[in-house]
């Protein structure tokens, strides 16, 4: 029941974007809003996914939090990260490029921030596909090894957001610092 509630909670931003698009209430440039918001939610959920392990370690150390089991929810959050990354890519491809394949190819070659963002999405995909209980059982130890791809994915995401900075770098710097701190914590533990 808790996992279902979490899935519904994580779907709310996408539902809000869909309702906003249907009601024409996303502002003067709804395509940009869809692309930006879906990407921002993918980024937020990546940060949340990476923060589950430190949170679990804290819960084990603090007596009154000892019954909280954040690790049980990490895969749901991780798959949601992938879903929002796919929505980000689909919004960009549909509303900004109109699925013109030649232009998409040019963008991938000429704009490094799109190249690294697409690479992050490609690396996220096997993580999402292998996040079922059955795949965890089938892959055994290799599952953990595969899911360590989250480290280069996070670095690619940092490059994706930093390369896009045009004027206000504050938000990109904050997300980058959060991701780097979470990566440092995880790498220190291995």
Question: Can you walk through the features of this model?
Answer:
With 190 residues, the protein is an all-alpha fold. It has nine helices and no strands. Helix 1 runs antiparallel to helix 2, helix 1 packs parallel to helix 3 and helix 4 packs across helix 5. The radius of gyration is 18 Å and the shape is globular.
Provide a compact summary of the structure.
Helix content is 79%, strand content 0%. It is mainly alpha-helical and 190 residues long.
Write the layout of secondary structure elements.
Layout: H1 2-22, H2 30-61, H3 74-96, H4 101-110, H5 112-129, H6 133-139, H7 141-147, H8 150-162, H9 170-189
Helix pairs in contact: 1-2, 1-3, 2-3, 2-9, 3-5, 4-5, 5-8, 8-9
Number of helices: 9
Helix content: over 70%
Strand content: under 5%
Q: Main sheet?
A: none
Give the beta-strand count: 0
Derived from helix and strand composition plus strand pairing, the structural class reads mainly alpha
Radius of gyration equals 18 Å
Give the terminus-to-terminus CA distance. Answer: 32 Å
Number of domains: 1
Output mean pLDDT. Answer: 91
Shape: globular
Poorly predicted sequence stretches spanning 5 or more consecutive residues = none
Oligomer: single chain
Succession of helices and strands = HHHHHHHHH
């Amino acid at each position: 029941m808790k996992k279902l509630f979490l899935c519904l909670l994580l779907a709310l931003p996408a539902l809000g974007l869909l309702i906003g698009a249907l009601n024409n209430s996303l502002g003067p440039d709804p395509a940009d809003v869809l692309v930006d918001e879906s990407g921002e939610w993918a980024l937020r959920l990546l940060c949340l996914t990476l923060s589950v392990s430190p949170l679990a370690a804290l819960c084990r150390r603090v007596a009154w939090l000892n019954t909280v089991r954040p690790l049980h929810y990490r895969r749901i959050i991780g798959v949601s990260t992938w879903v929002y990354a796919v929505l980000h890519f689909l919004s960009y491809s549909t509303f900004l490029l109109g699925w013109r394949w030649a232009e998409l190819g040019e963008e991938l070659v000429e704009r490094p921030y799109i190249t690294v963002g697409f690479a992050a999405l490609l690396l996220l995909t096997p993580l999402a596909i292998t996040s079922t209980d059955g795949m965890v059982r089938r892959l055994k130890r290799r599952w953990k090894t595969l899911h360590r791809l989250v480290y280069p994915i996070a670095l690619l995401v940092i490059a994706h957001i930093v390369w896009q900075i045009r004027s206000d770098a504050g938000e990109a710097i904050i997300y980058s610092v959060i991701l780097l701190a979470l990566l440092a914590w995880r790498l220190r533990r291995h």
